[in-house]
């Protein structure tokens, strides 16, 4: 707190409840005592706290791993606080070096604009748009100018900057570090000054940048923000961080059936790591559910509840119902009601060519590999012969667990 500020506010049951909501699933809450006092003051004076989350629109799509911090924002929003969804249109042009061993290529202004257009729309599936303040950091970063940038840079030392793990590692390994990369944490910290934030959220990889916000707020005579870091969500494999490049992700724009089935595919251990980060059920509800599973209830029941909740959040309750029924049908070997209809000619047609032309395999070689692996069915019968040729007719073709097509083949 600011020097000279001695007023202490009572930590009531409501404050303790808000503190528990803040801590749930979090990696770190720093400094916790300061946050408790901010919550207590907010309750006593009936003044909402300002809670900031900054995201650089580096890609147009969000997966559920990105929603971990958004979920926490929504929980704090539901406690009555003011959340600020900050789009880093200025900082995107620098490129965040966090966790990287090479300089991140900056985005063009047009790329940033296009990505930002879809970012908030997707985030609004988690946040309450009516109670969310949307800001762009170009509002205060552009007017800063060269003089202001130099004055800002004077408030931090190179030695402190080099304490950052990724900078230090790159320096020791002889990897290049561009001067403009030092500006990124400074500009992210300055966002907290401009917004007068009380709390900033981020992933564990953002801790240095979040602490920069505290430092700069003190430099500018403001009460420093607290910081709350959330774990990086493990992907479907339960090993690597969720990432499109690792193909272990669930996109929030994916269709309900795929989303539901992907959640059902995770391990039981991973399910319990996902619950505190992705579910809005209370800690007591999750603890009771876990006790039931440990008492003999099928773990799949808990997984279905999580799959339904996530699917309903990004689609609807009715879509979650339909996705569950679709999953049940498929697990029993049934065919979904709504599958693509494909018209093909050239019968008799080889199975590999049919799979490729029907869009069920990217290439003939991949189609042959799928047949070898027992992953192809025609009218519920597994295909084992790569030399199979199909005569004119209509066939239900299945690849793996989730790809179907009703193929009508003509001569």
TrEMBL record:
One of its GO terms (molecular function) is tyrosine-tRNA ligase activity. It is found in: Cytoplasm. It catalyses: tRNA(Tyr) + L-tyrosine + ATP = L-tyrosyl-tRNA(Tyr) + AMP + diphosphate + H(+). ATP binds at residue 244. SUPFAM superfamilies: Alpha-L RNA-binding motif (SSF55174), Nucleotidylyl transferase (SSF52374). A motif ('HIGH' region) lies at residues 57-66. Homodimer. NCBIfam families: tyrS. PANTHER family: TYROSINE--TRNA LIGASE, TYROSYL-TRNA SYNTHETASE. This is Tyrosine--tRNA ligase. It comes from Ramlibacter lithotrophicus. The lineage of its organism: Bacteria, Pseudomonadati, Pseudomonadota, Betaproteobacteria, Burkholderiales. The gene is tyrS.
């Amino acid at each position: 707190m600011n020097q000279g500020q001695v007023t202490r506010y009572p930590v009531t049951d409501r404050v303790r409840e808000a503190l528990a909501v803040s801590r749930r699933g979090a990696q770190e809450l720093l400094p916790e005592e300061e946050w408790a006092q901010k919550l207590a003051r907010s309750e006593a004076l009936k003044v909402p706290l300002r809670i900031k989350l900054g995201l650089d629109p580096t890609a147009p799509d969000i997966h559920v791993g990105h929603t971990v911090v958004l979920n926490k924002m929504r929980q704090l929003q539901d406690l009555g606080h003011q959340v600020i969804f900050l789009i880093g249109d200025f900082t995107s042009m620098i490129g965040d070096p966090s966790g990287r061993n090479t300089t991140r290529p900056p985005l063009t202004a047009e790329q940033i604009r296009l990505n930002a257009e879809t970012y908030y729309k997707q985030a609004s599936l988690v946040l309450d748009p009516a109670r969310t303040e949307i800001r762009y950091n170009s509002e205060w970063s552009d007017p800063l100018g060269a003089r202001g940038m130099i004055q800002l840079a004077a408030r931090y030392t190179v030695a402190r900057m080099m304490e950052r793990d990724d900078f230090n590692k790159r320096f020791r390994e002889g990897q290049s570090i561009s001067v403009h990369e030092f500006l990124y944490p400074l500009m992210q910290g300055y966002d907290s000054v401009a917004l007068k934030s009380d709390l900033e959220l981020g992933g564990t990889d953002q801790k240095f940048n979040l602490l920069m916000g505290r430092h700069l707020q003190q430099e500018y005579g403001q009460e420093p923000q607290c910081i709350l870091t959330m774990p990086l969500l493990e992907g479907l494999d339960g090993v690597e961080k969720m990432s499109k490049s690792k193909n272990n992700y669930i996109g929030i724009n994916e269709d309900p059936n795929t989303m539901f089935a992907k959640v059902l595919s995770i391990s039981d251990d991973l399910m319990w790591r996902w619950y505190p980060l992705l579910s809005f059920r209370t800690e007591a509800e999750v603890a009771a559910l876990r006790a039931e599973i440990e008492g003999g209830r099928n773990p799949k029941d808990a997984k279905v509840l999580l799959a339904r909740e996530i699917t309903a959040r990004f689609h609807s309750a009715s879509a979650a119902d339909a996705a569950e029924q679709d999953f049940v049908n498929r697990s029993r070997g049934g065919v979904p009601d709504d599958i693509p209809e494909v018209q093909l000619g050239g019968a008799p047609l080889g199975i590999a060519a049919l799979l490729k032309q029907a869009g069920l395999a990217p290439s003939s070689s991949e189609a042959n590999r799928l047949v070898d692996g027992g992953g192809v069915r025609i009218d519920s019968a597994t295909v084992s012969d790569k030399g199979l040729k199909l005569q004119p007719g209509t066939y239900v073709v299945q690849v793996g667990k989730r790809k179907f097509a009703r193929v009508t083949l003509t001569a």
